[in-house]
Amino acid sequence: MYPFHPLTIHLPIGLLLGNALLTMLYLRCGDATLETSAYHCLWLGWLGAALAVVTGIFDATWLVFDPANLRNDALGWINTHAVVGLVMLVVYWQAWQLRRRQPMILSDSTARRGYLVRLALGVVLLVVNGWLGGYLVYSLQLNVRS
């Protein structure tokens, strides 16, 4: 079976990192189009990340229950990767809902702090989860066929 997860991860990573970059640029320049673009990157990135999590769970389940390719050494890493991905989805969901419900959230200094903390935490989780995925592929050679 062909793994679908690697096909679905790159676009959400770019969109969610683009959201952080555009938000920072908006805070520096004040151009409203940057904030609007950041918002669109956030919700499109979240939808793509949700798809990546679903395909990751599907691929991991297929891999874990494949009797011809038992990889007990990778199970803990797979589970950690999955949990970090799910936590990342929750954090970005909260940020998306805060911004959706309060479009001028970056103008309100009290509400802005919570929103920016969620975006920063989301970026950290995104980077950590990307590292975990890379470790699974490049160090543990998971789903790599020679």
UniProtKB/TrEMBL annotation:
- Its domain of life reads Bacteria
* Record flagged with keyword Coiled coil: no
Q: Does the keyword field hold Transmembrane?
A: yes
Keyword tags: Membrane, Transmembrane, Transmembrane helix
Q: Which residues cross the membrane?
A: 6-27, 39-65, 77-95, 115-138
Domain DUF2231 as annotated: residue spans: 3-144
Q: Which InterPro entries match?
A: DUF2231_TM
Name the chain's protein: DUF2231 domain-containing protein
